[in-house]
From TrEMBL:
<protein>
    <recommendedName>
        <fullName>DUF5808 domain-containing protein</fullName>
    </recommendedName>
</protein>
<keyword id="KW-1133">Transmembrane helix</keyword>
<keyword id="KW-0472">Membrane</keyword>
<dbReference type="Pfam" id="PF19124">
    <property type="entry name" value="DUF5808"/>
</dbReference>
<keyword id="KW-0812">Transmembrane</keyword>
<feature type="transmembrane region" description="Helical">
    <location>
        <begin position="44"/>
        <end position="62"/>
    </location>
</feature>
<feature type="domain" description="DUF5808">
    <location>
        <begin position="26"/>
        <end position="50"/>
    </location>
</feature>
<dbReference type="InterPro" id="IPR043831">
    <property type="entry name" value="DUF5808"/>
</dbReference>
Amino acid sequence: MRRKWTKEEIKDYRELHGSLFYFNTEDSNFFIPKAYGYGWTMNWANPISWIIVALVIIMIVVRKFR
């Protein structure tokens, strides 16, 4: 069962996997704190992240060709 991970669990996951992108199928968060610096990034294993990216691309295309 998927659940929201804590900041400590996310940090441990990143240290263990060391990936550029956060892709954790067990974590239900779609926005997570960045590994370095300030801000947020997406959990690319969460379908909501892909929907957000698709909507942004659609908005850009619609504005460009309007």
